[in-house]
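Following up on my earlier message about fructose -6-phosphate. Here are the inputs again, as you asked, copied directly from the submission form:
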Amino acid sequence: MCGIIGYAGETSAVPILLDGLEALEYRGYDSAGVAVVSPDGKLQFSKSKGRLKVLREHLANQEPLVGNIGIGHTRWATHGEPNDVNSHPHIGNKNKIAVVHNGIIENYMEIRAYLEKKGVEFVSETDTEVIAQLIEYYYFKDYDLLGSVYKTLHRLRGAYAIGVLCADYPGRMIAARKDAPLLIGYGDKCNFIASDVTALLKHTRTVSYMNDDEVAVITPYKITFFDGDRGVIEKEKTEVEWDVSSAEKGGYAHFMLKEIMEQPEAVRKTISPRIKDNRIFFEELAGKEELLKGINKIYMIACGSAYHVGMVGKYIIEKLARIPVEAALASEFRYASPLVDEHTLIIVISQSGETLDSMAALREAKRLGARVLSIVNVIGSSIARESDEVIYTMAGPEIAVATTKAYNTQLIILTMFGYYLADLIGAVSKEEYDEFLSELGKLPEQMQKLLDSADVCQQAASKYFNRNSVFFIGRNLDYALCLEGSLKLKEISYIHSESYAAGELKHGTISLIEPGTLVVAMTTYAPLLEKTVSNIVEVQSRGAEVISVVSESDKDKMNTSYENTFVVPDSHPFLKPNLSVIPLQLFAYYVALNRGCDIDKPRNLAKSVTVE
Ligand code: F6R
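Thanks, got it. Here's what our run produced:
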């Protein structure tokens, strides 16, 4: 949420900052801005409401911003509406200090009141402006820039990743973080800061991840890291495996479509390192077998789509391992006095690894004595670093705000983990285990087959894109899929949509069904197929039009027309979710396309939600 980029080098900063912001725009797109310091110590900036292209136009129509050092920001508004003034960078009254910030400063009102009494005039409604004004206030006392940053940080309560420029230091930038992601990139005669590695891939893949309370001073040739007490520290360098092309559209109209199409490969990459000698093997869990055998309860903690993955995982792991599993929304878990002890396994699921609600729940679970295993896509992210164990999904960078390929790789990790755990505690027979493995090997190909028949979803989307309300119904695993199908549709197409356990509809919600209502019925979970078919008939007799998602071998049991039936290949019941989510993603995508929506950047949303 909010993107930060900073550059210190030997060439003009602005084009590099804009390029970085382009890659970061998915983190927030209410407004954007850049600031640079010229070699003769002049702080210049430009910022504007709207997408990055508006900032580009502004820059093209003003005096060029001169300087080889600069910071840039894309905003997802929290404090203060999206407008030019509230955009970052924020500048001190005396035009000495510029700051970009990601996070929320909780005590900003108090600091603002303090500074106003000292005569500082605020121009924006943001929490961030207090950082710029406070650093500048301290700076004018003793001209110790690093000291002013430290003094300021010590007064802040909340979360921050910041980049700081000072007009008196044309070759230096300062970065700091607490509870918001920030990394440093090492280039050739240049160095970077960024909130997200995708912003740096064109320039470098060598990075260091900053930890909470750390501060860095960055010049084109040197980076010095400090701990919270201003002591110099050494930081490890990491090589990022993602390449530039993985974060580009590669000929697709949208990142979302590209990422939907990448699912077979992402799932293949996620599965293959975890199969050894025809067994599921998690290198990440080697040596932890006894701990895992002692578990008597599992919590899946996550937000949004990742929570929906947890719902699927609950059904599968409870059935396989006979251990109680609860799927919890991270934002609720933390404040719900959860029953957690050292025999509880907490599984935190997160694509970005930076979601603040999930992070806060993780910390609460650890405080209560639980062990935390996280399933994360972004290597080195905060959740990964704070977990006891991490299993990485191999989805590659996910840029579209609506998750697709990360969701699918999270699903497969959880299902494989379910078998791994069940095998460890002797809860699964050899026949069942082997049957699963043989079906698992076929999954990527089956996913590809489904993607090759995307036109069925496309045609259904052109028929139904102008509906006002859509219901998703299903039972058991299919219900968990409904949650995801409904979220996908509403977040990118803005059509109101509900997901319901099919058996629950008659307890109230069926009164909303009227002639023309669209109902998407999930019927891939074979043991409950007939019951869901009865629910389909119930809504049809009240005038609903129904699209069904059904397995190949059951397609003749459906009472929906050919063009309203999305058929998924026959597979193991626990692998069906990986398949049946695909038509739901495609349907949502094509509905949004027909409605002319901004698919990769839906209104009010942002990728990586780093506020509570
Ligand atoms: C929906 C979506 C969100 C995320 C949620 C958690 O398409 O992408 O619901 O799943 O914000 O994000 P992560 O997985 O990064 O923790």
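One observation from looking it over: The chain has a mean pLDDT of 95. Hope that helps, and feel free to reply on this thread.
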